[in-house]
Amino acid sequence: MLFNFNKPSLLFAFTFLCNICLFAQPINKYRVYFGTAGNNLLIMRSFERGGQPFYLAADVNTLTTRLYPAAQLKVMPGTLTQFITKLNNTAYGRAITAAQQQSNNLQDAGIAHGFPKEKGISLTIDLCPSHKPLDRVIFISLINAFKKVKTPVPVALSITGRFMLTHGDDIEWLKGLQKAGDLDITWINHTYNHHFNPRIPLKENFLLEPGTDVNFEILGTEQAMLQHGLTPSVFFRFPGLISDRSLVDKITSYGLIPVGSDAWLAKGQNASSGSIVLIHGNGNEPVGVKDFIKLLSAQTPEIMSKQWLLYDLSETVEDEFSANRR
Ligand SMILES: [Zn+2]
Question: Which end of the chain lies in a sparser environment, N or C, as judged by fewer CB atoms within 10 Å?
Fold first, then answer.
């Protein structure tokens, strides 16, 4: 006989197929929906998958997100403004308020630096639209550098809708590393189209380009992430790190926290303790990737003695804005 089924393996196969069916189901009725549940959940979106209602919710203390079947939560609906006032004592409330207050810069608005407990950085890798394959060497170098020190390795990936359209294999590869316990990925919304025109001034470029459908750029990306089996985080990264006050207000009105960078390596900015480092992983920034790998090997002795670590972005922002830091 070719196959020998027993009950547990049949059950496993059935569960596996159900999960696949659920992922293959389109996301419908995706919308902004604010509410609270329990002591620490902020509901941010509601949607249907396979006819079942779901919520995307953030833990306001840890800044992590999860999907919940709607039937599991008792939700008190309300407006984000009401909740932000109430959440003033949480890491989420403080971080989103700080991001709103730092919104005047044309470049690099939002949270750009954290205060990790020990020496180290948070790594963010932008996946802007690109015809080139993912720079897999970054991830392989990270996993190798930290395999005896910290697993899974925390990284935050800022992903665009257009990258997802053409990099299905790369996304599956990354999900495989996450599943294997090698990487712990925070998925940041980096907009769907990420328009850029090198001939126009920055104040009308990227997301500031007149006629941009910001609602689609945000929700279309989140929907595409869910369709690929990725859970959107509470974080948002502006394309080109370019924004203005009204754009920051718009992004935060979706409950999202803009994250900048104080160490864009390819621009010659150096990483220091607590930096939110930016490199590009879409094959278009070999200098930044080379610099990062150089930084990793320069830190090898410190990495091995746990004096230089990579921090989870949620943890870094949580640390910076938790009540006991004020
Ligand atoms: Zn980008």
Answer: N
CA of 148 to the centre of ligand 1 (A): 32
> In the sheet that 65-69 helps form, which strands lie side by side, from edge to edge?
65-69, 52-59, 41-49, 27-37, 76-77
Here the CATH number for the domain that contains residue 266 is: 3.20.20.370
Whole domain around residue 74: which residue ranges?
7-86
Distance (Å) from CA 128 to ligand 1 centroid: 4
Length of the chain equals 326
Cα 307 to ligand 1 centroid, rounded to whole Å: 31
Tokens of 321: 């804005």
**Count of domains for the chain:** 2
Query: In this structure, are 203 and 146 located in the same domain?
Result: yes
79 within 8 A of 34, measured Cβ to Cβ:
yes
The stretch 279-296 carries a mean pLDDT of: 92
Q: In terms of C-beta density within 10 A (0-12 exposed, 13-18 middle, 19 or more buried), how is residue 4 classed?
A: exposed
Asked if residue 149 lies in contact with residue 310, where contact means CB atoms within 8 angstroms, the answer is no
Three-point CA angle 320, 256, 214, nearest 5°? 145
pLDDT band at 150 (very low <50, low <70, confident <90, very high): confident
C-alpha 91 to ligand 1 mean position (Å): 26
102 with 13, same domain: the answer is no
pTM as predicted? 0.90
Question: Is 1 inside a domain boundary?
Answer: no
